[in-house]
Specification:
The protein has 149 residues and is mainly alpha-helical. The chain is 87% helix and 0% strand. The protein has five helices and no strands.
Length: 149
């Protein structure tokens, strides 16, 4: 590999990951916000159906609602549990996505200091390929996970 090839590769990785972190990260944050609003709406519906006293904590209320044997209440509890799982998995996905992109950006920026070493290292070609495939894979998985219903 030549010095220019390594510099271009590192620069391209840093720029691509920065753009992905900004754009897809914004989509992930929007999805989390939407799920949180939906979760709040379902919780409010559950309160309206179940008519709970105001002095209960949210967890006490949900525990009591789970034990209540009315289909409308159980439907709302199931919807709330489903949304909770989606929020949790979406949050984890966003953290992994942003973490990966920040790691690649950081490694690319640090790599500028070691261009002569990277030129002579026999694994540079494969490391760049693995990083590119990892970036595409993490991004693709997060977009898939966030857009499935």
């Amino acid at each position: 590999m030549t010095e220019n090839a390594v510099l271009y590769a590192l620069s391209t990785l840093a720029q691509t990951c920065a753009a992905l972190a900004a754009f897809v990260g914004a989509v992930g944050v929007f999805l989390l916000q939407t799920l949180t609003y939906r979760q709040r709406d379902v919780y409010d519906n559950l309160i309206a159906v179940f008519r709970s006293p105001d002095r209960m904590t949210r967890q006490q209320f949900l525990d009591r609602a789970r034990g209540y044997n009315e289909p409308r209440v159980q439907e709302q509890v199931t919807a709330l549990d489903t949304l909770r799982c989606r929020v949790r998995s979406s949050r984890k996905g966003l953290i992994v996505f942003e973490g990966w992109n920040l790691l690649v950006i950081g490694a690319s920026l640090v790599g500028f200091n070691y261009v002569p070493l990277l030129i002579s290292w026999p694994w540079t070609f494969w490391a760049l390929w693995a990083t590119a495939i990892g970036t595409v894979g993490v991004t693709g998985y997060c977009v898939y996970a966030w857009t499935r219903e």
